Amino acid sequence: MQRKMIVLMIAVLAVGMAVQVTWAHEFIVQPVQLAASVGHKLPLSVVSAHVFVVSEEMEPIEQVDLALVKGDTREKVSLVPNEMLLTLDGAVELKQQGTYVLAGHRKGILWTHTTKGWQQAGKKGLQGVISSGKYEKFCKTLVVSGQADDGYKKVVGDRLEIVPIDDPQKVAVGQDLNVQILFDGKPMPTEVYATYDGFTTVPNTYAYFTETDENGRARIRLTHDGTWMVRVQHKVNEATDDYDQYILRAVLVFGVR
């Protein structure tokens, strides 16, 4: 028990340090429910959150793409701004039985840290530049219509992607969910964070931390029922005139019964 607490504290500290450096709002596609009947029209929101899952700022709609994926079918989802809730809202129709993927993409945005604070711009032409980055984000949210199928393991082709090896619908509380991390379609070793809705109101705090093996595979102990999020990040050192680093983040959202 003591060892688990130490691991959790290390994870919290690590994430806290990362936030100071990388301005880490998570990009999350959040439907009103993760399971629905066939033919159901399912409302959803795109949120930008430090606390899972409370939106704190609205993503620029022109920078966001969202699709409903089922097998080889990919259907674009229209979004509208919700100024009151700081979300982008839409809805999808679940026309057939099985597991769908809501695949969200927040295109790369430039942020530069200067001696006068953060600015949403490249470093070129700015004074007092400390660091700069291009931040691109991906989200996959699993939704089940009627009976679940193997749609959970769909690789949608995001540059940074979390792919479940196990069906989350069949992993009970207290068991491990196996996932694989892909970068440019290839397995990537990395650190993996996970949390569930209601775990805490402390920003950028996670319930679980682990590392993948050399094949990019990780096991996540699901300690609570409800909505879970798994999160990874990858930095690419590709300095340009506009930024120093290219930072990618990806999350996977799913339900645990």
Radius of gyration (CA) equals: 18 Å
Low-confidence stretches: 1-23
Q: What is the count of DSSP helices, taking H or I runs of 4+ residues?
A: 1
**Percentage of β-strand residues:** over 45%
Mean pLDDT: 90
- Cα distance spanning the termini: 24 Å
The largest pleated sheet is described as: 10 strands, mixed
Q: What is the number of E strands?
A: 18
Helices and strands, in order, run as: HEEEEEEEEEEEEEEEEEE
The best one-word shape is globular
The structure class reads mainly beta
Give the helix proportion (percent range).
under 10%
What does this structure look like?
This protein is mainly beta and 257 residues long. Helix content is 8%, strand content 50%. The strands form three sheets. Strands 2, 4, 5, 8, 9, 10, 14, 15, 17 and 18 form a ten-stranded mixed beta sheet that branches. A four-stranded antiparallel beta sheet has the order 1-3-7-6, with no helix packed on it. Strands 11, 12, 13 and 16 form a four-stranded antiparallel beta sheet that branches. The radius of gyration is 18 Å and the shape is globular. The relative contact order is 0.18. The N terminus is likely disordered.
SSE order and pairing:
Elements: H1 2-22, E1 26-31, E2 35-36, E3 41-49, E4 64-70, E5 73-76, E6 80-82, E7 87-93, E8 98-114, E9 117-119, E10 129-145, E11 160-164, E12 176-183, E13 186-187, E14 191-196, E15 208-211, E16 217-221, E17 226-236, E18 245-256
Parallel strand pairs: 2-10, 10-18
Antiparallel strand pairs: 1-3, 3-7, 4-5, 4-8, 6-7, 8-9, 8-10, 11-12, 12-13, 12-16, 14-15, 14-17, 17-18
